[in-house]
Every structure is written in C-alpha cells, then in structure tokens.
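Thread: Newbie trying to understand structure tokens

Hi all, I'm a second-year student working on a class project, and my supervisor (Dr. K.) asked me to get a predicted structure for one chain before our next meeting. I've only ever worked with sequences, so writing a 3D structure as a token string is new to me. If someone could post the tokens and maybe explain what I'm looking at, I'd be very grateful. Here's the chain:
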Amino acid sequence: MSEIWSKHKKWILSAAVIIILAAVILFVRSRRADSGTDDTAYVETVANLTGRNASLGMVNRFSGVIEPQGTWSVAKNSEVDIEEILVSEGDEVEEGEVLFVYSTDKYEEELQQAEIDLERLNNEYQSTQETITQLEKEKRSASSSEQANYTIQIKEQNLTLKDKELDIQIKEAEIEKLKSNIDNAEVKSGISGIVKKINDGSNSNDSNEENNFITVMKVGNYRVKGTVNEQNIGELYVDADVLVHSRVDDRTWKGKVTKIDTENPENSNSGMYGYSGGDSSSRSSNYPFYVELEKSDGLIMGQHVYVEPDLGQENEEEAGSIWIGSFMVDQSDPDHPFVWKDVNGRLRKQEVAVGETREEIGKVRITEGLTIEDSICMPEEGLKEGMKTLPMSEKPAEETEDVYEEGMEEGYEGDMEGYEEGAGGSFEGSLEDGEGFGGSEGEGEGLGSSEGEGEGTGLETGGANAETGIGLESGD
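---
Reply by user tm_fold:
Sure, no problem. This is what the structure looks like when written as tokens:
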C-alpha cells in the first residue's frame, strides 16, 4: 500500500485538490441560488430618495449660522484724542446719530497756525509780484549793457513767485482739511442698527478686522452664512432656492443663495454638515455661501441652522414636489419614461410623467405615476417584471462573478504550483458561512520537510473567514 501511495501520491493529491475546489464552487453557487441574488431587485423608498427621510439624508444639508444682513464700521484716527463716546455696546442707533466726538483742541491750534502761515505766504507772494513789476520798469530805462542783468533777475523772481503759489495751494489744502476735521469731529453712524462692538484697545488679540473703533450691526432681516464642501458645491448655485431648518425643532424658512465665495476657502474643520459626506470633508476645502431669507421671524443672532436645496420637498401633497435623481428614471424612450417599481414584493414597470429637469444637480421632477410611499430601483441590465424585490437595506455586500472566478482561478494555480514545487502538501483549512468570495491566502505544511504557502480559494461571509490552502514552497 505504501508503495502504491509513494508511486501515485502526486496524482492522488491532484485529484483531491480538484474535488475540493469543485465542492467549494458548488457550495458558493448553491448559496447564491438560495439567496436569490440573481433574480432579486433591491429597491429604495421615494421618501429616502427625495430626502423626506432625514435619518438617511439623501439630500445634503449644510451647516449655517444666522448673522446680520450687514455691518458698518468706523476706524479711529490714532493721531487725535477722543473727547467723548456717546454710545455703549448693545445700544440701538439710527442712521446719522452721533457715536463719538473727537477733541478739536489740536485741530484748532493747527488751524490758527496754518492761517498765520497762509497770510505770510500771501504777503510774500504779493511782495514778489511788486519786485517783478519794479524790475521790468527799470529794465525799460536801462542801458543795453544792463538789459541782460535785469532779464536774469526777473526770471529768478518769477521762479520764486511760482514757489510761493505752490506753497499757498498746499497751505490752503491743509487749512481746508483742518476745518473739515473740526466740522466732522462728531462721527455719525452710517446705518440704523445695534452697536455690536466698541474697540477700546484692551484686547491685544484683536485681528485686523477688529481694528475698527465702533461696529454697528444692521437691523432687519437676517441672513445665513453657510459652508459647502468642494465635493458638494455642485448642489448649490447663486439664485438657488434653499430651505433653512432649525436644529432644535421642525421650523423652516425659505431663502435664496446670493453668493458662493470660492475665492476665500475656510478651515476644512469649520464645516460641512452632510449625512452622506463621511470623513472626506476633513481632507478637502470648504467655502462660505450666503442665503437671503424671505422672512426671519423666530430666528436669533448666532443661531445654528441647516441649509438644503429646496426641491419642493416641503409640500408632500403636490405631485410636482417629487424630485428624484435622473439616473433613477429610464428615459431611453423619451415618449414613455418609466421607473422600476415595487408592487407587492414584485418588480413592475411604472410609466411616469417627467416635468422640470435640473441638470445642474442631476434631478428630475415626477408629476405623475409616483408617490412618496413607493419604492423603486435603479434601471440596469437584467431587470425584468416579476422579479422578487427586497429593501435596499437587506442587500448583501457586493458580489461579482468576475471577482469570484478570478479568485478561484488564481487560488487553483497557486495551489497546483505549490504542490508541484513542494513535492506534495496537505490540505488544511476551514469553510464557514459568510458573504463575499474571492481568492484568499492559504497556508499548509508540505509532506516531508518541505513547507510552502500560496494563494488559495477562500469564501468569507458574515464576518466569518474561509481559507482553503495547498502546501507549497513558492506558489505566490
């Protein structure tokens, strides 16, 4: 018996390997057949697809904060003392109301001196003009030999006159500025609003933005400053209608995007709130955008809110409010578009009427043939009426025949090569239930003193692992 084994062990083990692999293939295919994978369509509710089910968040929501429509600020002249501040933080002020007053003592002293200087310059200018007049008179009665000397003197006096003219202009401008400073010593608010901040210089951490002495916040309707991630920025555009949701209750406000500031990206951690965004937002740029609200009743300054595109999802009774991704509608025949719909656990074609199309966000409006309670699936090859349907939540992990066949083939070749080079091997491993399949790595000890490892066939599902290995020396 030992001689027979020694003589034919290679072929016996090869046959055993083939039988084992065939058993694995049959097992996997039987599992797939039992699960109904080949003839099951997985459907999703229209409520989820339209964002009506906020727990799944199929419509991206973005974080936002309530801020004033605008602010007005005034910087302090550091060269002049302030005589009096007439307002405090939190005060309501009207446009044109005096906020603070500069001390005019310095300006009045400088004005007095400037007016004296101007009078002196005017006198010097007049004196120069008189000198020129006298030289010209003397030149007319001078001899020929003296004419050249008078000409030079007159030119010099004309240059002096021009210098005096320039000095007078500069001094007059200085006086006008001083008078203006005195007249405008009272600094008035440019808008009606609330005094947001008075910067008295006590905060050493103030940024350039805070170099303004007094900032007034405009009263009236608020606006929303939101943040959109570069991966979701295509969902918003200027003039897009949006819904603003309270974070603490079910109140909503309507608005319109007025600006998306792509020139000033914000810190990537300052953020996007998107149910489908995952962790990717921490590795990409965020941009501020602004929403003008139709009404701001019930909102308070600094309140945090969510912003989402307004696709009519608020009015569930209106057929035109059902917006779904255009990829969910088969429009191969433009005259008869349809969706694949679940009807009592079976797949059926449901013709629909397509209204408005939003190409910029890849959505279409369904006006007939679909309700918010329906469930549909994405059109793809292989779908047919009568197929069994299951909710998308029950769909197993992705399984493809290509991955399976490739894994089986690579595993088999590795096993055979390992066997031949290792002069045999033993089969070790286990097979357990789970989901997914493909090549996995197996290990085994060769008969005798040879040890090998190579890629074998594996089946892993439901968190369990299956490894089938054939001993070899260099089967990788």
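A couple of things are worth pointing out once you decode it. The CA atoms of residues 266 and 344 lie 49 Å apart. The mean pLDDT is 73. Feel free to ask follow-ups in this thread.
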